[in-house]
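Subject: Protein record for review, amino acid sequence with backbone structure tokens
Concerning: The relation between a protein's sequence and the shape of its backbone.
How to read it: Take the token row as a discrete description of the fold.
Enclosed: The protein record, placed directly beneath this head.
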Amino acid sequence: MHATQWRRRVTTIGLLVVVLGWTAHAASSDHAEQTQLRRVATPPISALAVNAQPSDAAVPLVLDSAAPAAIAGPPQIPQPDTANASTSGRVPTTRPLAGDTPVQATIALRSAVVPSAIDAGIHRLRTNGLSVTLLGDPPVALLVHGTARQVNRVFRTSVVSYRGIADQEILTFAMPPALPADLAAATGTAFVRRGQATSAHRLTAVPAAFSTAGGAVSPQPCTAAANAASATGAHTADQIASHYNIGPLYAAAPQRPVTVALVEFEPFNPADIAAFQQCYGTHATVTTVQVDGGAGAGTGSGRAATDIEMVIAAAPDANIVVYQAPGDTGSVYDTYARIAADNTAQVVVTSWGICEPTATVSSLPTLERPLFEQMARNGQTVLAAAGDSGSAACYAPPSATDTSLAVLDPASQPTITAVGGTSFAGVSDPDISWHTAGGAGGGGISHIWPMPRYQAGATTTQNSPALCNAPTGSACRQVPDISMLADPTHGYVAYVGGTWRAVGGTGAATATFAGILALIDESCVAGPVGLINPALYRLAGTSAVVDVTQGPNTDLTGTNGGAYPPATGVDLATGLGRPDAAALAAALCPPTGAAGSGTITVDPNLVVTNSSTSLTFRYTPASGTGMVNGELDITVPGTWSLPTTTSGQPGYTTADAGVLTVSGNTIVLRSITLPANSTVTVTFGDTSGGPGARTPSAAQITTFATASAPASAGGAAGLARNPAVRVLTPGGSQAGQGTLLRIAGADRIGTAIAASQLRFTTGGASAVVLARADIFPDALAGVPLAAQVHGPLLLTPPSSLPIAVLNEIQRVLPVGGPVFLLGGTAALSATVEQQLVTLGYLPHRISGMDRFDTAVQIAHALGDPTTILECSGLDFPDALSAGPAAVITHGAVLLTAGPDQAAATAAYLTVHPRVTRYAIGGPAAHADPGAIPLVGADRYATSVLVAQQFFTAPSGIGLASGAAFPDALAGGPATAEAGGPLLLVPPSGALPTGTANYFSAVASSVLTGWLFGGTAAVGTDIASETAQALVLVPPPS
């Protein structure tokens, strides 16, 4: 029996749309000839004379002069195609559009546009009668609705209708639109099309349901599907699940429903989907959203139905939203813009592609990029098929016979995961590269996009920066990233056209991988995984990504010298290899730390004034944890170059994970997914694409404010340790030395305020922590809390807040912010609470039955950390040095009753037996013999042991009196934030030997130091000796 073939020719202007290698054949015993299905298009508009059949395509008018050099100029309005008129009996025409015709202009915005910068322009458009909608947050496009007459008047142009020889319409502008001055600098590219409403309707009313055993229901085929698979050599869903180790994901407890968005440019038959679900007993919900009028009526070629069924086969309870559009250039853009704006899908899938040389004619890749970056910032994972023409993506006979090396858009987009193709015959057989008579796995090197940072170290020998006009010494984006079964000879069984058939292609592979990611998102406690490419490349060579090293090359046409063969490591045939679903889930969804957890370092930390430099910030999540779709913020001090994402500019900034934007002087990195124990690197002043960052003109210590958060945290919290950089004069003179500063007030309350002013020079706290000033335990246990919530630790009398404390709270914390009160009403009275409410703040009291129980409650507020530092609650010295150590370890301070264990502490440790415990000082070590002891000969020696244990290369050091507690109470958070210990010293005399030795050992890393309290607490002789040992400028006498 011959194969049954579905083929639908869809022609467009300026757009080659290819459905990615769906091959279907009827079930037969003789393995009938397999014919590859493609949706093909005519050449770009500049070649319209060659059998053009446009389909309501909107021709883009390029307004962005900063587009990459590889992007061709805008297509112009076509001239009449008299050469082909005789073959169709029709002469192409161009005429103005009727003035009352509703139209929609879609105006793309440049990356990182601040909404306030375009508000005036939008207001101007609206006052002229146009309706304007912003898409995305931050905005990526404007949708402008009105009549053709209104658009003509406001934009000082004319909307014209072009009809080609196939009598299909293109709308475009007769001349470049004149945008309001407020908008001109912010806009990229504009499309115009007839105004059409979008709509959504439900295809199936079957509600999604989770298995009572947890997770999705494992799919099992009915007899008809199993028979079709046996007859054709294809695989059922359960066999695919077994081969790719998807099975364990079905047993995972669901955390949330997951939505998968499919981009489709053809209709499908709902009856096919219903039959597939009935066979497998699945309960996926399928809805459609029509964009720009939808994809038309009918059942389509079967491609869309196959995509839907492959997602269901892997993720049986997914919510699937099918975005349907006509498939012309404008509707392709509009579809992606709609998905980004809706932001309801966790996984976005397209099995359609446009070969880069064709796509660049309409500037579509540069138009799309902000949309895909927006999706990544949304936390959406976007997948695209790499194609079925092997290394020659433009080859789509009979209409397109270009056999040159090329890759597909959008698969080559840096924020998209490109899925290639493999083959295997038996479930237990290894994957090999795919190349048969019917097609080959797509892959190669982008001619548009430079190599993203996450691919560094994975450059193939075929790569060259000249291909994409990248800087010398760099390279270009490579695809695919990962691969799965695509060979239709041993493909998937699908129900299409009323019967079971074997299908294949990288589109089917992409939809299947989307189903796997939907299962991972569904069960990941930390939330959907978002942009996965950086994590995938970190997982190369692990069990999560299995290298594919065998199989044929992917030179489908035989004209490219065998490009590309599979090889050990990353290659252009299968990318990183194929996934192991269970191992990938464990890697993409590791345990995550709390907001503000982790550490950040900077290299170099010594620079000279008035120079161009490059600073590399490395953020590492807390030990044993990773990050799932998280955020990292780095705020650059105003004396440095402003950060920017524009290459060639001072302050050019790059990152090797996440999606990077700049907001003022803050570097914002979103959608960071990191496997456990890995690191993300941000380079400020990247000299590979810019001159570096301009340093301050004066010698100084510069501290960069930082914050981090996993997606589940709801907002980034300040890191406990902010990186500091010492700026020296060109000769490295004394003026560039760090400084030993004295932080002191008139009393302990004033010193706490001074410490707050040290940390929050211009305000910017996220919270405030309040403790009583007359006794120490609550304040000592509150040090890690103050660091975690990014706020000062302030002291107050129990009865009421002094005016100085009230003023400091109002200075550092916006109205409506939280204030944490440590202890019950005997520690901080109800009057204190009422004063805060009157000022508009939100008090949160953390208290227990006694000081020991209050420390336990603070530990609960910290999220019950895995590190506990125990110290005596009957005396202050050991707890003073424990506070910064608790901050740097993301731990908590618990109190013992001197040498006896407190009941509250004992109960907490019984419930949390796996925590790492340190006993600081002799009394705590006696109370908990099982803890790691840090016990010195005296309080000074104990503080040195703590410093040596936790601070081997501090950038700052705090000193406090070991003779009395008041002045040191608030020094812990300030010292810990600079990544340093708090050491106890005598009020006067000589430094203890152990302290002096520690200073000598760490002097090279110390950039600044603080003396907490006046000269009565830490005398000038101690200050002078400390400054000399640490090579710091001493404070004024």
